[in-house]
Write a structure and sequence with these properties.
The structure holds two protein chains of two kinds. Chain A is of the alpha+beta class. In chain A, 39% of the residues lie in helices and 22% in strands. Chain A has one domain: 2-Layer Sandwich (Alpha-Beta Plaits), CATH 3.30.70.60. In chain A, a hairpin with a 2-residue loop joins strand 1 and strand 2. The chains are: A alpha+beta, B alpha+beta. The interface between A and B is medium-sized, with 21 and 25 residues.
Amino acid sequence: MNIEISKNQLGTYGKLKLSKSAYSNETLLKASYHYTDKLYIFIAEDSYNYEVNMSLINQSDNVELSIVCGEFINELADQEMRQTILKETGAIREAIVSAAFSEAAKGLSSTLPTRTVPKANHSYVDDKVDIIQLKG
Amino acid sequence: MNFNLPLSIYSMSAISDTKKAYKDYVKVTVKKESGYASLHMCIAEQYNQDEKKEIAGSFFNYLLQSSASKKLDLKEV
């Protein structure tokens, strides 16, 4: 994976080719989204690769462009790792969260007293339980 | 300028939103093809080279952010 620095009618840009088998489009979207404050990014593709075209928002030299593109590659690796961990542990995390919430919800009653349930013809003016009363 | 936008990355509704948002700066025609959208972009002549770069670049960033928001279900802040 290398960055090819080129020029077109809009100025200098870095071109990065990424294998579709190595990176998911979610990873690419997340990393690109993260870098839109530093880079202008345009993504193209062919059958096997994504082609990420990047140019610096603040005009600078090629060295700076190479450095930011390098950071972008690190961000891609980071996001890909996050996706992998999410796939591996997503079910466990969901189970822990739902167990925690079900424990917390044990003391709560799911039914509201009838008098607090608003009817179709009620408006906030008919607030009988003083929900909108100013306090403090 | 012509670009082919992969629909696995960019969404058609995001393209439409971005086109509307930049209508004062750039004329865009879009044609949907199989797996990609073909986009022709024409930036008004009144702008200099740096401004054209800024308009084209921010157009694509807006499009990318909008597509990411839709595809990844991100909440806009």
